[in-house]
Each structure stands twice: as structure tokens, then as C-alpha cells.
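Homework-ish question, so no full write-ups if that breaks the rules, but can someone show me the predicted structure for this set?
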Amino acid sequence: MDFGLDKKHEMARSLFREFAENEVKPLAQEVDETEEFPVETVKKMQKLGFLGIPVPKEYGGQGCDPLTYVMCVEELSKVCGTTGVIVSAHTSLCIDPILTYGTEEQKQKYVKPLATGEKLGAFALTEPGAGTDAQGAQTKAVLDGDEWILNGSKCFITNGKVADVYIVIAITSVVTDKRGRKKKNFSAFIVDKDAPGFSFGTKEKKMGIRGSSTYELIFEDCRIPKENLLGPEGKGFPIAMHTLDGGRIGIAAQALGIAEGALDRAVAYTKERKQFGRSIAQQQNTQFKLADMAARIEAAQLLVYKAAMAKATQKVYSVEAAKAKLFAAETAMAVTTEVVQLFGGYGYIREYDVERMMRDAKITEIYEGTSEVQRMVISGALLK
Amino acid sequence: MKIVVCVKQVPDTKGGVQFNPDGTLNRAAMLTIMNPDDKAGLEAALRIKEENGAEVTVVTMGLPKADEVLREAMAMGADKGILVTDRVLGGADTWATSTTLAGAIRNLEYDLIITGRQAIDGDTAQVGPQIAEHLGLPVISYAQNIKVDGDAVVIERQYEDRYHELKVTMPCLITALSELNEPRYMTPGGIFDAYEKDVTVWGRPDLKDVDDANLGLKGSPTKIAKASDKVRKGAGEKVVLDTDEAVAYLMGKFKEKHII
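A: Not a homework solution, just the prediction itself:
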């Protein structure tokens, strides 16, 4: 068992770190303040292949592994949670299901421009009445000749208005079981931004990750080609769940990065900040807090990297992903809260990054499966 | 067109500097980066490759660890990497280094050799021009712009207050300034590819037309008497005086220090 990174992963980390420091960090506060999607940063990431890291070269990607991708999201999120989730939602939630379930034609048509970053991707499962309980969804798709007709709406969609390609989960049939209970069967679809009948609702005003484009998607007799069904008809739910398993590793990496970024700032600040004639880093209270945070972050990192390795080598990695996301997200929230406390009054001021990090951390406990859902996945595997 | 770029792995000054007992740098113990001027030279070569088509070979002399700087160059887009490493080459000054690198480059075909102006560890700016001298090539130092024009290169050579534009027929050697360009980032796929490729490793026996007397610490005319990290200065003395008093104060200090 080897806990060290090999040379190519170390070099990839140094690349992501250098890029994050030089290109992302200087804009992080502005992106948060203005709530504007960082278009220029995404263009730069496109040029460097950051939007297709774990995708095979034959489909326009970088041919790297999930661990490399996870380190990219981690390093970006250390300085800007918004930028981290843009890459994560695009890669894990849009490219990955097409790569896993798509036909060769779908991969050629959609994965290639997504992996090169020419196009940006999004994933739409959540609806106003259906979050954790996906069965509550209302969006329907009906086959009409050579086209599917979609009706309904999706909410809280990351990369909402800026994406070009959307994975949309919709009901394609309702069956009644022996006891007379109705069960919805879902299917997954690839929807182009310019599909007729597809429009955007309101932009969400969020607590954190404020530069990410979070929108409501509206489908009104939206027509898409028959061949844009992703995977078999009626298999949309397992496709969505498997996609979220991958997505959770990305969000776990985002949470990990936010926690690491906050700790970095706490170390620097507590060495400089003087109270009672000495730096607060010389106070044992601070030292113990820093030590606890460092230990917890490293444990989170090991879980996240283990989940990324599991994605590379295993068909099913739900439990690894759930553990990584649960622990990393709660670590991000705990660490950022503690770091704001160490900063005192300055931690509460927007001028300091840690205030933003604490707001950014909260969403990692909620999206792509709440911490409660992760506990259900983990305990479900224990008790089956 | 074939371009050889010489790069050096240098200590990352952010990471602190450590020395061997003989006064030379303990390179194995320090965090390292690609020397900034060399990186600009590599970027210039990669741009020529993109615009005109070229094969870019990167050469470095150093410890086995210097393999990393070649992988980095390949991850940026260089085609081949050659590491010149041998115990007998250790402790080399600029003369022994340029002799070694010239001995390696004699094995290669080239139209253009690009080196950085100088390395941030030694700051001599001697190795590039010395390689040119060993190989009998024209050298254009301090390049702030490079353009290929047929079988020649047009170079802007920087001076303090102006630049000279020179047109030189290849083969020739150019030393590059870090102001020359903004070097590109590596790509994740480029890094993975770089670690799939082989780096050629050469030792003393692979060097062509060199004399042992000119290699390594023994072949280095420069003897380092003492080396140290940056000496920290004291806080200084701050005085607030009006003009006449300040002049008198300064004159007193200059005399006291025997400056005047």
C-alpha cells in the first residue's frame, strides 16, 4: 500500500496549483461579489484541457485518470469554489454519463466538443418538488414519431444558462405494480441548448459559489431527436444515480479544496496576527485547532483519493463516493467555520477570503446528495 | 528544422537554499523549478515549432533528479529530452558545464540552439555564449524577440535603453530573456504523455570531443571560496531631519565610513 503520489500526478498537481494561484485566485473575490460566471477563466481552462481530464484522447480528452481530475477540482477549489464546481458538474455530470452510456455516435457528437471544452455541459435531475425523493419528479418525455417531446421544469441546475449540452432525466412511462401502486420510469436524454421549446427561468441568488450559473430549465413541448435518448429507455434512474456517484467524488474534491484553502489562510494569518504581545499561532488554543483541522483534512483527502481510485478500477463505487463526499463536505463546513472564528472580526468581513469559503462550503453538504443521503447510501450497504 | 534548447533545473528561491560542505549548492535537497530564462527560450522554440514546424530537443546537465525538468519541457510540447548526468561531471563551473553541454550537442543535428540568458542560481550568463564558442557558432545574447526568416533568424537583442535588430544565418545560438514571452502551462495530457516517453540519458562516455581536464569540479577554473544564502541586513537607522541637518548628517556618515 502506497500513500504517495507518483511523479506524473505530482507534476499535474503542481500545474493545477500554479494555474489556480495565477489565474483563478486573483478573480475569486470579484466572481463572488459580482455573481458573474468566470467566462475568461473557463476559456483558459479549455485551452489547457482542464475540461476533459479523465476523458480518453480518442474522444478529445486528456487521457488522464479520475485522480488527476479530482486533484484539478481540489486545487481550483482551494482558491475558488465556483471554479471548482464548474469543472466538476461539466465533467462528472455531463461528460461521464455520455461516455458511460452513450452510443458511439453520441460520444463522437457530444463528448468530443465537451472534452475539448468547446462546449460546456450540465445535468438536470432536481425539480421544485423532487430533490432527494427523485420519484416526485414531474418532467415527462413522450415519443412522437422521430422525436421526444419534453414538458416540465428542472431547478438548481449548475452551469444552467452557460452550458450547451444538458443531460435531462424525465418520466417516460408510469407502471402500476401488483398492489396497485404507481411507479414512474425515467429515461435520460441529451438536450442541446438550442432545442425548440427549451428556455431558462430565473437565475438563483445563492449563499455561496455565487459565480456559478444556477438556473431553472423550462421545457415546453421541447422537441429533441429520438436518437438523443441516453442509454436504454426506462433506465434513467439508475443512470442518474450512477452519474451522481461520480459527481459526488467531484464535489468531495471541491469540499476538500475549500477546507485546504481555509487552513492555508489560517496558518498564514495566525502567524501574523498578534494579541497579548505574541502571535495567536503561539497560543496553544490556536495550535490545537490547527492540528485538528490538518488531521481531519488529511483523512478527507485519503477518502477522496480512494474514491477516485475506486472509480478508475471498479464498476460500482457508490459507498466510496458517499463516504468521501460526506466526510469531505462536513470537514469543509467545520474547518471553514473554525477558520472564520480564528480570524475573529476579520473573518466576518468580505474582504477576507475565509468568509466566502465558509459560504461556499455549505453547499457541499447539500448538492449531489445531501449528507443525509450519503449516510443512507453508506448504512444501506452496511445493513443489506 | 531542428532546435536544441538547453534548460537548467534551479533551486526555487521560495524554498530556501542549502549548500554542500565544499560550497557548491546541495541541489538534491532543494525544491526546484525550470530556470525562468530557459523556460522563455523553450517557449520561443515551441512557438517556432508551431509556426514553422520544428523538432525541439531539450538538453539538461544535472543530477538524475533533473529528469523532472525534461518531463516538464516535454509536457509543454518538446519532442525529446536528453539528460547528461555523471558523477565525474559534478561540481562544474561555467567552463566545465559549457564543455559538457557542447560535447553532448555535438551528437545532435541542429539549426538553432537556444539557452536562457542566465540561471537564477549562478547568474553568470556565461554558459550559452561559451557553448557557441565551443561549437564555433555565432551567438546572439539577450534576445527579446525571435523570428525565423528562411534560413536565418531575426532577433531583437536587448540593451539597457534600446535594442538591436540582427539577422543571423543559422546555425547559431541565441540566449533568451525571460521577458521574451509568457511561457505556456503544461497540459494534464501532456504530463501523462511525457511520463510515457523515454528520456535519453548520457554520461561522460557519450560526450563528443571533450577533454577530461575540462570536466567536473577538477576541470573548473572557478574555485568557490565561500557561498552563503542571502545575508540579512539589519533594520537600518531612520532619522527625520530638515534638509541642512540631513546633508550634514550624511556627510558625517560618509566620512565615518571612509566613503569620502
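Now go work out the reasoning yourself. Hint: Chain A touches chain B at residues 7-8, 11-12, 15, 18-19, 48-50, 53, 57, 61-64, 68, 72 (CB under 8 Å).
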